[in-house]
Amino acid sequence: MSPEMARAAVDFAFSTPRPTIRLEIVGAEGAGRQAGWLAVEYARRKAEWRGRGLALSWRTARRPAAEQSAWLAANRVEVVADVRAVGGPERSQLFPAARARVRLARGAACPESWIDALASLGVSQVSWEPDVVATDWPAPGSARRAAKFAARALARLIETHERSGLRDERAVALLSFRPWEIPGTDLLSTLAYSPEGGIYSSEAGYRRAEEENNSRRLGFFEVTRFSQFASMPTVQAILAAAWRAGHPECSDCPYREQCSLPWSRKSCGRGGPAHAWCALHTALMRGIFSYPDREKCISALNKWGVDISRIAW
Known about the structure:
Elements: H1 3-13, E1 20-26, H2 33-50, E2 53-60, H3 66-74, E3 77-85, E4 99-104, H4 111-120, E5 125-130, H5 140-160, E6 167-168, H6 169-175, E7 192-193, E8 198-200, H7 203-211, E9 219-220, H8 233-242, H9 263-266, H10 276-289, H11 294-303
Parallel strand pairs: 1-2, 2-3, 3-4, 4-5, 5-6
Antiparallel strand pairs: 7-8, 8-9
């Protein structure tokens, strides 16, 4: 993304009515670093001018250099580690960060070791997801393996919560009945801005749109107004699909009250029990409600900020 496009993307983000603007800079390495830095500084100044809240994060697969780390800290920018798990955790691919997004590739193993490694680095939140494109989900067996990995990791989090500040970002959002905080949820939490100036419902929506000749693009941030979204058929379809009653195969799920599958995942036509994201959410909820030590589980959820009174055990 060019510096000019980065500035236009920030301007569009500030046209939304949210009191606090959350911007995550993704893939700003090499030639894109200048645009990323400009976006951070411009957003910081704009928030001060407008009297708006601002939360900034910088997602990277590499440990930031000392100079960059100092600059990010000075600008109050959270570092998000973007990690691909192909086995057990390797120290060379991990680094201190506020949050971690771990993509579970074939061969991902040792979830308990992953939890211990991330906690030792001071990571506060982790989110697991299959390392596949939204339209190319693995076979049900692969989806189940990813879900089993996440469930074992969650059990380790509960077991060690008294001495660790790490929590599962996705599980907490599901249990808190805040679908807009579920990582990857279309429109309710995030919009994705492409280097060419396109607006998409989410990162997954952007990847799907690229494969479908941009048929899912919502507009361009240089000319589209946020107020136009309400009348767009695509936006209406996204919001309808995000609601748990929008998918008939979810009607018998015992965890439907907690779950909202992103539209970009449902619309690939592979929803229901075999769906990778459905398998992931179900495994997390089953891990919570079937955890053998109920008191310990409740203690962990309380520490993570979940309102226990809203949950029917």
